[in-house]
Structure formats: structure tokens, C-alpha cells
Amino acid sequence: MVSDEIVLQIEGLSKIFRSLFAPTGVKAVDSLSLSVRRGETYSIVGPNGSGKTTTLKIVLGLIFPTSGTASIFGGNVADVSVRERIGFLPEDAYLYDVFTGEELLDFYAGLFGYPARRRKELVDELLSLVGMQANRRVPFRECSKGMRQRLALAQALVNDPELLILDEPTSGLDPAGRHQMTELIFELKRRGKTILLCSHFLAEVEEVCDRVGIMYRGRLVAEGTLAELAGAPTEIVITTSGLAPEGASRVGAHSAVLGIDGDAVRMGQESSDELWSVLDAIREAGARVGEVRRPRPSLQDVFVRAIRQDAGEQDVAEEVH
Amino acid sequence: MGNLPFAIGFVVVVALLAVTHRLWVPALGHGAASTWRIAKITVAEARRRRVVQAVVVLVLLVLLFMNFFSYLNPREQARMIISGGLSAITVFGILLAIFVAAFLIPQELENRTVYAVLSKPVRRFEFVLGKYLGAMIILAVIMTIMTVVLVGVLLVQDHFVPDFDHSVFEPNLDNVIFAAVMSYFAVAVLAAYIVLISTVSSTAMTVIASFLIWAIGSLQSQIHDLAEAAETVFQKWFFTMFYWIMPPLENFDFRHEVSNFMHVSYRAGINAAGEGVLYIIIVLIVASIFFNDRQM
Ligand SMILES: Nc1ncnc2c1ncn2[C@@H]1O[C@H](COP(=O)(O)OP(=O)(O)O)[C@@H](O)[C@H]1O
Ligand SMILES: [Mg+2]
Q1: Is B252 helix (H, G, I), strand (E, B) or coil?
Q2: Does A86 touch chain B (CB under 8 A)?
Q3: Which has the closest alpha carbon to B90: B121, B59, B123, B133?
Q4: Could you read off the pLDDT of B220-255 as tens digits, one per residue?
Q5: Is the minimum CB–CB distance between B28 and chain A shorter than 8 Å?
Q6: Does the CB atom of residue A28 touch ligand 1 within 6 A?
Q7: Which residue of A261, A295, B8, B163 shows the fewest CB atoms closer than 10 Å?
């Protein structure tokens, strides 16, 4: 469903925050370029402080770039007509807390100039979509984090936007809440929405996004589809059972085997003859073969690798998680 | 006040509107609707927080309390009630303006509620105007209630207090209402200044600055005297600038004339109100310009 039409284009975007305490400034975003096509779900992933929120705020015109441009539908987000076609879920979203879900959605729908009848239908529809019908009369301040996040998503959907911008949609939610939110994003994707989201936790968004941009210290250090980023599988893992120590050392002596971690025998991507000969060696050692897999590197690994390359091999693993 | 300041103010307003026309001309239709929606939710939020109720109870207590004093004679009694009542209305109005207006915008930024609004088709100046309008509605309701209570107290007293030959209880209602309306103008002008400050600073700073502006605005004639008495050109220039930049709050204060049954010049009031409206427009335009450049 992804078309070639570019919905969001960011070019050479930089943002330096200057303050009394940091007169030279903090470079929150550094020459960032990316584009999102219609129907695509693009995720910016990076550790806290890498500049994701800053990027989204610039895209929305809430703050202004030091240099570079961001355009939506080929226009400027400062134009009201552009903002009529986008929806935004802010990070740690907070709405006017004395009002209930239905009052809030009615207010936000009103900002698009919809008449009262249409607003009423819309509010019903959105409350059902995000699973808040039963709690529609609970004031926002009495809502749980999960309910708040779902109301905040509904708020971003009042205009049935073509482009949705979600800042950390799943962070701070319990596993059930995260699951609900991921399902909702899937549903929106099915409805053909273009989605730009960001997250500091890759595993939470891995399943929903078509493309990922890895951001670190304000820069986009890697970009591509999940498969492109992970690269081709590089090894074969054979799970065994009943592999005794002396048998293991015999299997380990095989030229194709890279190493043995407990019950798992790892070998390179050799020809199938080599695979059979390793399997034979395992059987001869008196062990049984459970499963043969060709795992891709996890995105977490890709993430660490990309950031390491960028940071010149500094130890950044703990920063990532 | 001659007509010259008026003319200058008028020219300044027209010039500002012309310079900023690209901001507001395309927005007239849609913008009015957005502004009104923001104003309405601001009022609704204050109602939920029971701001109005709390203040009204407080003011009722103050006004009722004043009835328990006995005075030398009916005229003196009327004087005390009018003077105390108008002061209560003015001071409560100003304090409320400070607390309502100073929190209007910074609170939205601190709670991050502003993001969901400004990512919608709402222009920033519509947001500023809507917030101001909402605050003015809240203050109008509160000050009207206070005025109605004061008028009620005066009518009741007029009925019960026996008049002497040489001293009558004079409720002076027309002038009391006039003075209350003028107080509302003072509050409206001060609130505009507070909104302006709040577009560039935090809540705490805004509250402090608001009290300062109130104090300075109430001492306008002293500043004028300073400008007149200035010894160097720089001093004169400085005080004159200061005089024009600060809100002319003194001009709205008719408490003394009204409570002492003196002649009250409605014309002076109308002039002050016109001048106040000019100040409000200029200050809100500047506030919108500042807010337009604000990083959220
Ligand atoms: N308003 C601001 N003033 C100064 N520095 C800021 C501001 N907002 C963000 N930063 C800094 O910019 C960097 C990126 O922040 P942010 O975009 O929030 O990161 P992320 O969303 O990826 O966690 C951080 O170092 C942060 O401290
Ligand atoms: Mg963030």
C-alpha cells in the first residue's frame, strides 16, 4: 500500500538549543534528512536524548529549526491547511485534566469546525476505536496511564488525518496497554494512514514499522527496512539434545563449526554438504538434532552496531538499554 | 488627557494591524471560531476548578461583614459601604486577574496541554486571544456578581437606615455601577499586560511581574511628575517612555469621587476606556508576536 508519493520530507535539519548554561548550545538534531512515503509506517528509533522529540516538534512547527527544512504534503506546517490533514500524539500526552474523554474529544473536533451532530458521531466512533466507551465520562485526571494514552491517540484522530505523528506511543504503558496500542497502530496502518512514530525501545515498534531510522546524538546513523538493517542471516544454529562434553569437542573440531553454546551448535553459511556433515557429526557424537535455524541478527544488535560505528567504537551498549 | 495621545495610539494600532495583516486577515472567519472555542474551554475549565464559586463566597463574606458596623450617621455609613465595596471589587478583580491571567498560558506549556491544541488548525494568535477572552469572561462574571451584591447591600441599607435631617443615606447607584465598570477596564488592561509577559516567561516570573506592573500602573501620575521634573534629556525621555509603556491604571479609579459623592466625569471615564481598549489591542498584538516565535 506504500506509494511513491512523499508525504513528509525532512532535509538537512539541525537544531541547536542555546541557553545560559550551555552558551555554545546543545546540538539536539544534526543534519537530519529523511522522507516518509504515503501509506508507510516509519519509525525513528534512538536512545533517550537522541533528538527524536525535537525532530517531531520541528516537523509540527512547535519549535523552529536552526537550519534545514521539513515539509508536509509539499507545504509548510505553519499553514493551517496542512495541519488540517495531520494528527499528533505528543510524548507523555496530557490533556485538560478536569474534562472527561467525551468532552475532550468534542473540544478537539470543534477546533476543526465540525458541527455538533458530526462531533457527536465522531466522538462515539473514536471512543469505540480506542476502547474508551465504558470510561467516556471519567475525568482525564482520574484516568490510568493507558487510558490517557488512548484518549490522546483518539485526540490525534479527530480529523481522520492522512499523516499521523506519534511520539513514544507505547512508552510508560504496561504490557497489556502496549499490546492494545500496538494493535491500534496496526489498525490505523490497515486504514491506509501514513505514520511517523518514534520510540526509544525498538522491540515495541519493530512489528509495526515498514522502515526504521536509527537516530543517535541527533544524527540518523542507519536507515532501511527491517530486513535491510538486519542484513542477511550469517550463520546456522543447530539445537541439539544429549550432547556430552567429549562429543561436543569432536563436533567442535569440524571445520565448519564456529562454536558451541551449551546445546546450540553454531556454524557458518556453508554449502548444504557441510550442513549434512555437521549433522552427521552430531549424530555420531550420540546427540539428537532438535531444530535447524538461520536467525537474523536482532534489531537490537543492529542498533548497537550502527551506534558503535557512529560513535567510533565507544562502549555505548548500556546507553542503548 | 488631551486628544493627542489618542491620535497617537490610534495611529500605532492601525500601523501594527497593517504590519501584521498577513497574520490575521486570512484568519478572520475560521480564526474567530477557533478563538471562541479556546475562550469557551478556558471558561469551562475555570468553572470546573470552581474558581468563580470560591471567589464569590469570599466576596459575599467581606461585603456582608461590612454591614455589621454601625456608623455616626447615614451619610457616613453609605460612604463607608461604597468605598469598601468598590475597593473590594477592584482589589479582588485585580488579584484574580493576576492569578487567572498569569496561569493561562504558562500552565498550558508546563502541563504540555498546548501541544494537542497547536498541532490542530489553530493559529498561535488565536490561542492567545482565546485565552485572554476566556479570562475576561471569567472576570466579567465575577465582577458583575460582586457589583450586584454591592448594589443589593446599598438598596437594603437605604431601606432600613433612617435618614436624619442633615444626613441622608445616599446609595449613589449610578456612580457605583460606573466605578465598578471602570474597575473592570483596569482589570482588562492589566490582564492583557499579564498575558503579554506570560508569553515569554514562566508562571512564577509572570506573577511577580504582574504585581510590579499593577503597582507601577497605579502610580502613573507620580511617574508623570518625575518626567516633568526631569533634569536631563535622558531622564525626561526615560520617564516619558515609561509613562507611556505602563498601563494607565490610575485613570480607571473613580472610587474616591464616587464614595465622597463628588462630581463624577463620565466623559473622563469614556476617554479612559477608549484609551484602555487601545492599550489592550496593542499589548495583545505584541503578545501574539512574541508567542508566535516562542519555542514550545
Ligand atoms: N527546550 C530545550 N532546551 C534545551 N535543550 C533541549 C530542549 N529540548 C530538548 N533538549 C535537548 O535536546 C536533546 C534531544 O532531546 P529530545 O529531542 O527530547 O530527545 P528524545 O526525544 O530522543 O529523547 C537532549 O539532549 C535534550 O536535553
Ligand atoms: Mg522524546
Answers
A1: helix
A2: yes
A3: B59
A4: 888 888 888 888 888 888 888 888 888 989 899 999
A5: no
A6: yes
A7: A261
